[in-house]
Amino acid sequence: MNKSDLYIYGRHTVEEALEEQPENIDKVFLRNTLKNDSIGNVMELASRNRIPVSHVPGPKLYDLVGNVNDQGIVALMSAVPYMDYGTWFDEKLDLSTNPAVLMLDEVEDPHNVGAIVRTAAAAGINALMVPKHRQAPINAAVYKTSAGTADRIPIVRIGNMNQTIMDLKDEGFWIAGLDQNGNDPLWEQKFDVPMAFIIGNEASGISQKTLEHCDFHIAIPMHNRVPSLNASVSAAILCYEWLRQRA
Q1: Looking at the structure, do residues 56 and 135 belong to the same domain, yes or no?
Q2: C-beta of residue 200 within 8 angstroms of C-beta of residue 177
Q3: Cross-strand partners of 73
Q4: In 3-state terms, what secondary structure has residue 220?
Q5: What is the separation, in whole angstroms, between the first and last Cα of the chain?
Q6: Strands (E) located in 138-236
Q7: Domain check: are 92 and 67 in the same one?
Q8: Residue 226, SS3?
Q9: 90: domain CATH number?
Q10: Residue 128: which domain range?
Q11: How many domains does the chain have?
Q12: Model confidence band, residue 1 (pLDDT cutoffs 50, 70, 90)
């Protein structure tokens, strides 16, 4: 697959993609003059698979795909295929090795996501989990920033962050949220069990409900009144502390 942004267009093409490979569709764009009865199936399929939909003016679609017969419907495909959660768990996971996963909670900057992907792959993290909504998709900008490493680590797309956390807990994972206000200093933690590390939004951090599901609220010690680090820098420090303990 070409590692640039991949847009598909036309009612039949987009409907077929929504039916056959919804996990690899990041977003659907609909011309805002379309009548509801002409896009009902697209809307239903997007809603069923929790895929964001934007209603935009015609010139926006032209900007995306050029002078083609788009029929008022365009979809953005991911630059790297996502892995299904069940497939990843059954085929890629060995709990006896005390694996670790990174979970992104609404990290919206593609460059942050790309840098986190690169670090996670380099540190041997077992998977990166990304929600479908309010999250930078794995697009061309992410792939470029990851320096081509986005296809070297399973990227698992999840529908509901908190439900996935509960599923991981049921399988023996401990959940650690990276929280600048946390009371568990990073250097005092022992990562000798399966771990899921949560990285929060650049501005607001981890959502409150997700924080409530965390077993640990890990803080990176800060000096000189610096309030926090960039999300990708924080993720790198965390990943390499986990890797150091495995040495």
Answers
A1: no
A2: yes
A3: 30
A4: coil
A5: 36
A6: 155-158, 174-178, 184-185, 195-200, 216-219
A7: no
A8: coil
A9: 3.40.1280.10
A10: 85-246
A11: 2
A12: very low
